[in-house]
Design goal:
This protein is an all-alpha fold and 118 residues long. 84% of the residues lie in helices and 0% in strands. It has one helix at 16-114. The radius of gyration is 48 Å and the shape is rod-shaped. The N and C termini lie far apart (150 Å).
């Protein structure tokens, strides 16, 4: 069987249609490089903006931490006031109850003396 070439013999380095294919691939590579550069620039810009936003958010969270500390102090103060108010109120209730019982006992004693029960 004789050796038959698959591609026709030509005078160039590559077959004629191969050079056009390589030119297309080189154009695609140039476009890809340009697109990647644009994407990188956009990402860098986006990252810079994100950094600025994160810095602003950090500032806000610091302020919120300060506000939350003040709110915690106020709540602790209110809780202490309520405890002291509760103790005062409980003391007044017990004192009033004791006074009422003493008056009732005195009144019963006066009635018992008046009706000659004692």
């Amino acid at each position: 069987m004789p050796d038959i070439p698959v591609e026709p013999a030509s005078g160039g380095r590559y077959p004629p249609d191969m050079e056009s294919r390589i030119a297309v691939l080189e154009q695609i590579a140039r476009m890809t490089i340009a697109s990647l550069e644009r994407i990188e620039r956009r990402l860098e810009t986006g990252f810079a903006r994100a950094d600025l936003r994160m810095d602003r958010i950090d500032g806000r969270t610091d302020r919120m931490d300060g506000r939350m500390d003040r709110i915690d102090r106020r709540l602790d103060m209110f809780a202490a006031e309520h405890r002291s108010d509760f103790r005062w109120l409980l003391g007044m209730m017990l004192g009033t109850t004791g006074t009422i019982l003493a008056v009732l006992a005195g009144m019963l004693g006066a009635m018992a003396h008046g009706f000659h029960w004692l």
